[in-house]
Specification:
The protein is α+β, with helices and mostly antiparallel strands. The chain is built from 6 helices and 10 strands, in the order ββααβαββαβββαββα. Helix content is 35%, strand content 22%. About 18% of the residues have low confidence.
């Protein structure tokens, strides 16, 4: 069975696709994929182009195996430019992917990765249903430009198109405590909000509540 990866990324085997979806989550964005699953026709065409290049009868072509040998055809390989980004590459590796086409010659394909389920450290990630019951600590950050961010264990999420640059931080914290409870200031623009959030949907909901407070404070200040 195969699964569509979404975002125009093609398809992969169910196991590889599940891994890619977990990688999406850890990256905080859709993983970059130039090609994942490949048809037998495309594989054989690519292999013929490579053979012609090797024989000197065709233009330069990337290394490719025929359908009988290409891991792309099983849906367990993906070509990604994320391998050129050390942080993103580390996430792929933690997800059980390895660059298996490094040859230091004309065959070298640093973008090519294959999935090895036994190496997938994300395989036991909680499901969305389990995450709904996971209590996490959130942090509300006031960026120097006044934008408010909510940060949880999954990383920063820009939540709400609102600014607080013209509002006293101490007053803002006071108002935030009415929503989040006790707040511990870390520095002049960052403070911990010890609130239980299940996932980013709840983080977004809290951020919108803070946005409403900010708007009310602005309205009161201009009255």
């Amino acid at each position: 069975m195969v699964t569509d990866l979404g975002h125009g990324r093609g398809w992969a085997s169910d196991t590889a696709a599940a891994s890619i979806f977990r990688i999406d989550k850890h990256l905080g964005r859709p993983a970059d994929i130039n090609e994942a699953g490949r048809s037998a026709e495309d594989a054989n065409r690519n292999a013929a182009a490579w053979a012609a290049y090797q024989a000197g009868t065709g233009p330069k072509a990337p290394y490719a195996l025929d359908a009988a040998h290409s891991v792309h055809c099983t849906g367990n390989a993906a070509d990604s430019d994320d391998w050129y980004n050390p942080d993103a590459a580390a996430v792929w590796r933690a997800g059980g992917w390895r660059q298996t086409a490094r040859y230091n010659d004309d065959r070298d394909e640093p973008w090519h990765g294959e999935h090895f389920p036994e190496l997938d450290t994300y395989a036991n990630d909680p499901t969305e249903a389990q995450e709904d019951n996971t209590m996490m600590e959130a942090k509300l950050i006031r960026h120097p430009n006044g934008t408010i961010y909510v940060v949880d264990e999954m990383g920063a999420d820009h939540l709400g198109d609102f600014k607080t640059a013209d509002i006293d931080l101490g007053e803002f914290i006071t108002e935030a405590e009415k929503i989040f409870g006790p707040v511990q200031q870390v520095n002049e623009r960052e403070f911990d909000v010890r609130v239980a959030i299940a996932d980013r949907r709840w983080a977004r909901k809290h951020a919108v509540m803070v946005a409403d407070v900010v708007k009310a404070m602005r309205a009161a200040g201009s009255a």
